[in-house]
Amino acid sequence: MTSPMTLSDALPGRAIASHIRIGRLPPASAVIPCLFLVLLILAAIEPRLFTAANPLAIAPREAFQPPGPAHLFGTDQSGRDIFTRVIYGARQSLLLGVGAVAVSMTLAIALGLIGGLGGRITQRAVGWTLDVLFSFPTLILALLFASHLGNGIGPLIIATGIGNVPGYARMVLGQVVSARHAGYVEAARALGHSPARIIRRHILPNAMRPLIVTVTMGIGQAIVWSSALSFLGLGAKPPAAEWGTMLSMGRDFVQRAWWVTFFPGLFIVLTTLSTTMVGRYLQRRLEGRLP
């Protein structure tokens, strides 16, 4: 006797759909930050997709206009549209974050390889140097270099990047030391591969894989540090449309016009939260805690 036909057998589409695991879809905690970052990247690449106004155009008669239909985020003390300036500021702020992380990782990889592949004396010297630098808060270390390099986007990227080097370098050093004694590296040596090829094909890729999450979250942190330096007057010069500079320009008008500083600060917070949440999601995926 044959078994009775079930509804799933009668409707193949439902039978197939019943095997789809909803858990395979990224959670909202990862999708929403990703969408925000995509919009932010689009604003950085082509800000005219979101606004046709000039971020530097002044209109003294429209100074300190509150948020409304004419100006979504209001205007500043010179009548400049804050929404337009925030959109155009995405380019410089993202450039600061990505550039600072690139500088940090370049120096960290160099120090990590020197310390991890050298002898005991070299490894200890690099470790002690990183311990000394790590004893300084990131902002203080970045401020020290920024005060010597001068103002501007380029010096700000270098100063913020150097300030984050100790943390990245310590992680790279640990990963290189671990990969150096791994079985696949010993097998490559036994096969007669050159040291340069072993570093390029085996040690460096495996040492860098766990740092993807750290780099993702580090972009938001670098934006915070660079914005702090810009707030102190060591970043882009006014009236540049950069979030930290906008905070610095509007700090004297907080009680009179809260929106001048609120919206640039809001986007700094949202960008940092988005990169952190995406990084946490990638971390859970790499650790196998998500399907």
TrEMBL record:
Residues 90-279 form the ABC transmembrane type-1 domain. The keyword Disulfide bond does not apply. InterPro entries: BP-dependent_transpt_permease, MetI-like, MetI-like_sf. It is a multi-pass membrane protein. PROSITE patterns: ABC_TM1. GO terms for biological process: transmembrane transport. Signal peptide: none annotated. The keyword DNA repair does not apply. This is Peptide/nickel transport system permease protein. Pfam families: BPD_transp_1.
